[in-house]
Design brief:
single chain; 281 residues; 8-stranded parallel sheet; two-stranded antiparallel sheet; 37% helix
């Protein structure tokens, strides 16, 4: 039986299987330009108390993210920094090179979490072997995957040395995938969401507007609180200081079990992004 997650404040965290603490609210940087835009977003987030920054090689903004961290004045050891190996760089040797390139662009000497961005058929198991090596070398504090469905995870787990510690998935009220959440929980894999706002679609849902009114909060705040109360790490993306602050204003209320269940029941299986079983990039 899963215990109810303890949600305290912006610096709170969920504990990964190896004891590493992963802040449950972070700043996503997808589609944030690799210039002053992402630098300022990172600095603003860290100033507000965020301690989790998520990027990826594919976002082409690792340099800006690294610059934002350095200019923030926050000690590197306090920040949970995440990036991902892109599809074209998968494979054992290729992943080792990609990892070093990401470190160089970020201007850091280790990562807190490194993820396989997508399960590239015929390559992701060799990529995972490279992540296990980097983890053993203590160059990464935790390793995980992104967009891995149950059968992908089972394939990795069949002969891995280290079970993935995190699975970052598209997650929102129309794509809950509770069976996958439960599978991850049963295997000590922390669930994390991307696209929690369904690329903006949640803001047009009457039920979300009704919940926002009920709790005196914004729709975005309702959805992010929903993530955290389900034990799911959330990394909403924004480059606007006011929105970054608003996204963090979710620690003074709690959704009822009935409202959590209601949001779960909106599940339709609709994706706002690609299907992990059918992508061609």
């Amino acid at each position: 039986m899963n215990t109810r997650p303890i949600i305290t404040d912006i610096k709170g965290s969920f504990e990964l299987r190896n004891g590493v603490k992963m802040p449950y609210l972070g700043l996503g940087t997808y589609q944030s330009d690799n210039d002053q835009e992402v630098v300022d977003a990172v600095k603003n987030a860290l100033k507000l108390g965020y301690r989790h920054i998520d990027t990826a090689a594919a976002y082409k903004n690792e340099e800006g993210v690294g610059k934002g961290i350095r200019e923030s004045g926050v000690d590197r050891s306090e920040i949970f920094l995440v990036t991902k190996v892109w599809n074209a760089d998968q494979g054992y040797e290729e992943t080792l090179k990609a990892f070093n390139a990401s470190l160089e662009r970020l201007g850091v000497d280790y990562l807190d979490l490194y993820l396989i961005h997508w399960p590239v058929a015929g390559k992701y198991k060799e990529t995972w072997r490279a992540l296990e090596y980097l983890y053993a070398q203590k160059k990464i504090r935790a390793i995980g995957v992104s967009n891995f469905l149950k059968h992908h995870l089972e394939d990795v787990m069949n002969d891995c040395t280290v079970v993935p510690m995190v699975n970052q998935m598209e997650f929102h009220p129309f794509l809950v995938q509770q069976d996958l959440i439960d599978f991850c929980a049963d295997n000590g894999i922390q669930y994390e969401s991307w696209s929690p706002f369904m690329q903006g679609k949640v803001f047009a849902l009457d039920i979300c507007a009704d919940l926002a009114k009920k709790y005196g909060k914004s729709v975005a705040q309702i959805i992010l609180r929903y993530n955290l109360q389900k034990g799911i790490v959330a990394i909403p993306k924004s480059v606007h200081a006011k929105r970054i602050a608003s996204n963090a204003d979710i620690f003074d209320f709690e959704l009822s079990n009935e409202d959590l269940q209601f949001l779960d029941n909106l599940e339709t299986g609709e994706r706002s992004g690609p299907d992990p079983d059918n992508f061609n990039f």
